[in-house]
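User: Here's a chain of 297 residues. Predict its fold as tokens.
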Amino acid sequence: MAIYSISDLEKLSGVKAHTIRIWEKRYNLLAPKRTESNIRYYVEKDLKRLLNITLLNRNGLKISKIARMDPEEIRDAVLELSQEDSVDTEVLSDTLTLAMLEMDEDKFNAAVQGNISDIGFKRTMVEIIFPFLNRLSILWMTGSVSPVQENYVAGLIRQKIFVAIEALQNPTSKDSFLLFLPEGERQELSMLFIHYILKEAGYRVINLGAQVSLEDLKFANEIQQPKFLLTMVNETLGQMSIQDYVDELSLHFRDSTILLTGLQLARRQMRSRANCRVFNDLDELQQFLNGQALQTT
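Assistant: Prediction complete.
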């Protein structure tokens, strides 16, 4: 069972610890437990309740009114709120956090689908989903998310990306991208979003997925002979250094341009390789793709 200090609740909800204590004393909105040494702590249901309360309060409901609502009324009000077009990104991030903690697909879809219809899939991913995933990393650091909850919400996001990719028109460019994640790398959602961006730009995409060894990559490369190889490295690569890995890619795939991104690459001064390019973030990658599109028109 995950437990939280009041400072954890402050980080995860954005509500100051002082305000949380006032809500407890004045409205009995939370009931912290105490250790044998009299230290206050909270459990997962307290976090869920606080996030629900915060959502409603940020959208105009007075705390005194929320305190009189039963749990079902609060849930219905949050669900209705998440379906509105004018909800800000902080509120949506709270809603997605709740959907993950409660494993509530209806709440997740209500928060995401309306925004896809309103501002489009790409902006929804950049402005809503990725900020939520950044919050998820904080939840991991506090030990407040179980692997089941993370896998659940990642599966829901993955489904949205697959649907968006499938809805795009067939490629118009002859240039192809071979996408892969090396062994030990877990950023599948980011790579799937790059798949979407590439296909939207008209490129043919061959996505090999995660845990791709160099030998498997060589095999696929011989069949597809892509113009570009693209990968992401945020984790360490076990026994092989990042530079050695890039050198191996450059050596074995001389006929392709190798595009590289991820924290492990952006943080290092890499030895330059003629057929390799490193991008610090998604914006740099998109600028490169826009330049490629101009060259092929």
